[in-house]
Amino acid sequence: MDKFEEYDVVIIGGGITGAGTARDCAMRGLKVLEVEKYDFTNGATGRNHGLLHSGARYAVTDGESASECIKENMTLRKIASHCVDETDGLFITLPEDDLSYQKTFVEACTRAGIRADIISPEEARRIEPAVNPALTGAVRVPDASIDPFRLTTANIIDARRHGATVRTYEEVVALVVENATVKGVVLRNNHTGEKTEVRSRLVINAAGVWGQNIARMAGITVNMFPAKGTLLIFGHRVNNMVINRCRKPANADILVPDDSVCVIGTTSDRVPLDTVDDLRVTPEEVDILIKEGEKLAPALGSTRILRAYCGVRPLVAADNDPSGRNISRGIVLLDHEQRDGMKGFITITGGKMMTYRLMAEMATDLACKKLGVDKKCETATTPLPGSETTPVEGRVSHDARQYSFFAMEGRHGTMTTTIPAGTPEDDALVCECENVTAGEVKYAVDKLHVHNLINLRRRTRIGMGTCQGELCSARGANVLCKVAKMEAEKAERDLAAFVCERWKGMRPVAWGDTLNEAQLTSLIYEDLCGLNQLAGEGKEIAR
Could you tell me how far CA 65 lies from the centroid of its own chain? Predict the structure, then answer.
């Protein structure tokens, strides 16, 4: 008889919900395997506006979601402080909006437990100079911004500290089903093509919009509503507070300050499920975001756009609304034993990044009940790695005068003290825009599950600055090649893939300075380095 790897729980999905569930399960003593077909945050988690919702946006239309948001908002400020920028937020009324809606909005926020203070237009202009000066009303709420990449990474680190096994680039191609019970998964390594079978007492489907396909492997139907959202990143931080339109949710009504840039979002359109792996930003979506974004902050009209991107919300269809805006953003936990007669299988979906920890708690509570484990959830009170009150052990001496130290501290919190530093080699800058050092690259490879440049970008922000990888890509590839002991030919292909990914986001906004930057990048990497010779006819390179 073949000998299989065995776990208590296999968790499918490397987004924030999967990462949070792996952490919670591991903290409660379960033997956990988390699998992701590409890299962490490859899906919706890495393609949102990074808003730490107060819940105010949903207060009028979805009071339950609003209440969940404000509770988790306050929790994340405590347990994930190094991922949060406590900006506060404004909901503004413009001349074209109905000012009477403000009263309805504030009353709904109050019912949901959300602080909502009506302030004068003059006060709003004082505390947020970038806001449209024509506003006729304003409400201050406890919105903030949060980095989804840091948040996911911190959850993965803690899951591993508590014994979880984590595998990326391992895709679930089948569920092992015996006697109406899911007994495990069949994995395919997306680098080698090798297949392995893993057995478990329970499988948790946390694959977001792709969860519909996972459920289908067990003969189960989960009607997902893939709602595409497109966003734009601007070249600097125009606003210091989150700015929202005080109206029912619509296109381009949120402007979020995000590190050194700002993000406008989002659109909402239903798309076919078979298109979610190859979504493209359209000129019409870019036009809408620019036109409506200028109404929030007029300075956006003269601010360079760095890139455009889009993601898919994992909503569960409940009606025939063509936009998906009226479908609840609430959490959906499916016990397939009760719902479909299929034992050993749970799906956790819906919700949003803001409520990931609560989603994980709900899924883990059900898992523990099924597995006979009696241990309470502690994720709401236990700080994530990087947000501890004291630095972790293994402190490395950093020169606190260096700006790169403060940049790293913003990304890694208390874990910064373990990043190699103090030598000319470790302190050398790989990425000037984001102040990423060679020591931080080493740390990312050793501790943060980094195998290529795209992974590295998600952990350190390399290539996410003003030059979009123009000056740092080759340096990053060189350091990564040495640290990860990658073969030169593979490192070359990796560099080409990274540059292509940067171009995909610049292409929809390729005019003015962005086009000039792209042309210079092309000159460097195609004409000087010849990387285009590694690409196929369509200049597309595999993930």
Answer: 19
Which string of b and e fits 330-358 if b means at least 16 CB within 10 Å? Answer: bbbebbbbeebebbbbbbbbbbbbbbbbb
Nearest by Cα to 203 from 225, 226, 187: 187
pLDDT-based confidence at residue 273 (cuts at 50, 70, 90): confident
Q: Please count the CA atoms within 13 angstroms of the CA of 103 that sit on its side-chain side.
A: 3
DSSP class of 452: S
Beta bridge pairs of residue 264? 232, 255
Distance, CA of 164 to CA of 372 (rounded, Å): 19
Are the C-beta atoms of residues 415 and 405 closer than 8 Å to each other? no
Are the C-beta atoms of 232 and 286 separated by less than 8 Å?
yes
- Which helix (H) or strand (E) covers residue 175, if one does? strand 170-178
CB 52 within 8 A of CB 76: yes
- Give the helix/strand (H/E) hosting 1: none
- DSSP helix, strand, coil percent of the chain (3-state; round to 5): 40, 20, 35
**Which residue from 70, 65, 233 is spatially nearest to 143, judged by alpha carbons?**
70
pTM score: 0.93
